[in-house]
Amino acid sequence: MTAEIEKKLCGPYGMIKLRADGHALTAEVRRVSAKTMTYGIALFVDGFIRGEHLKPESEIGAKFYPLRTRNILKPKDYHAHRKNYGKRVADAFKKRCEYQYREAYFRSAKALIAQLKKTCTLVEIAQ
Hints:
The chain is α+β, with helices and mostly antiparallel strands. Helix content is 35%, strand content 29%. It contains 5 helices and 7 strands; from the N terminus they run αβββαβααββαβ.
């Protein structure tokens, strides 16, 4: 099954429909960056990418979308803060500047398959 999913999602117009734990999934290869020609695999759950599913506390989002962690503090600012206040204070400040979100796309078919294997009990290709 994994080889068939990878085969369907290898081209620039690839698409596959899946069923996983009672949800209809559609995975499409799309351009995910407006600035660059970066392609990724967008995952639609029950036909949509809903904003409430992209919140870190969402149950459906936790099942289908990867969690990402970013820091709003730049490394240059962190080092300046560390120089002025010390390592312990700077590390605590860096931890407070982190935020989490869920991405609606995957960078590769293998990443999509790994996420589905990790979180879903039954995944099958829809006809």
